[in-house]
Specification:
It is a single chain. The protein is an alpha+beta fold. It has two domains: about 5-140, D-amino Acid Aminotransferase, Chain A, domain 1; about 155-250, no CATH class. It has helices at about 20-30, 50-65, 80-85, 90-110, 170-175, 175-180, and strands at about 5-10, 15, 30-40, 45, 115-125, 130-140, 155, 185-190, 200, 205-210, 210-215, 230, 235-240. A hairpin with a 7-residue loop joins strand 5 (about 115-125) and strand 6. Helix 2 (about 50-65) packs antiparallel against helix 3 (about 80-85). The longest helix has 22 residues, at about 90-110. The chain is globular. The N and C termini lie far apart (about 45 Å).
């Protein structure tokens, strides 16, 4: 029996042949997407319902504002988009059920301890004006061990267009920003002016303000005023009051 390290399903149908790494898949396949993973020895999937809602909202935003980012094919008529999107969750759940079973069986057969990384992508179906294709990519994933020293951050810009939607073309676009990252930096925080944070180039970040935790949403501007930054839950740094340049405040 041949071990498969990655799986790809389209509309619930497992694909044969070599499956590319998820980064290559996203770079070559335009569409709205979301990524999550399993937890607890692959026994549960983190926030799957929330990811599906986010994916559905991304498709809606792109269909209205930038249909070209939903892949090739004719642009759906406005009165058809809602019908197409309404079937998205059902198709994604069907693909997940089949793909999870395949990956978990492979994991058990070879005695692996890895978690499963799950990426769902939605794009317009080629040659059809009303349908969407739902892709599901599953791979094995070893969660990194958090370092006690925290994350090393750098600030870059500008922010993403249509930041409320998550689309795969960003994986290709952000390569230019990644070239700006200092050698010791582990993540870039996006900013349009150096004073306000938008999001991480790869991760989201948390802001702890006066004892409460707020998860940064895309396109959310965070003003500096007695806050703590916690990036990927690595470390917290207190910033001074005022609107100083983030480059001088975000450090390891």
């Amino acid at each position: 029996m041949t071990m498969h390290s990655r799986f790809l399903l389209i509309n619930g149908v497992p694909q044969t042949g070599d499956v590319p790494p998820v980064a290559s898949f996203l770079e070559s396949t335009s569409g709205a997407y979301t990524t999550t993973r399993t937890h607890g020895d692959a026994s549960s999937i983190l926030f799957w319902d929330r990811h599906l809602r986010r994916l559905t909202e991304s498709v809606r935003i792109l269909a209205e504002a930038r249909p070209d980012l939903l892949g090739p094919g004719p642009i759906p008529a406005p009165n058809q988009a809602k019908l197409n999107i309404s079937s998205l969750a059902k198709s994604a759940n069907r693909s997940l059920k089949i793909g999870y079973r395949l990956a978990y069986y492979q994991r058990s057969q070879y005695g692996l301890n890895d978690e499963l990384a799950i990426t769902a992508l939605v794009r317009r179906k080629e040659g059809a004006d009303r349908s969407l294709d739902v892709f599901l990519h599953i791979g094995f994933y070893a969660p990194p061990v958090f370092r006690s020293a925290g994350a090393c951050l750098a600030v870059a810009g500008p922010g993403r267009e249509l930041a409320l939607a998550k689309y795969s073309d960003w994986v290709r676009m952000r390569k230019g920003l990644e070239k700006m990252k200092p050698p010791n930096a582990t993540e870039l925080l996006l900013s349009n002016n150096g004073d306000e944070l938008l999001e991480g180039s790869v991760t989201n970040f948390f802001v702890v303000c006066k004892g409460s935790v707020n998860l940064s949403s895309l396109a959310l501007f965070v003003r500096i005023n007695y806050i703590f930054f916690v990036v990927n839950c690595f470390d917290a740094k207190r910033t001074p009051r005022g609107r100083k340049k983030l480059e001088s405040m975000l450090h390891q």
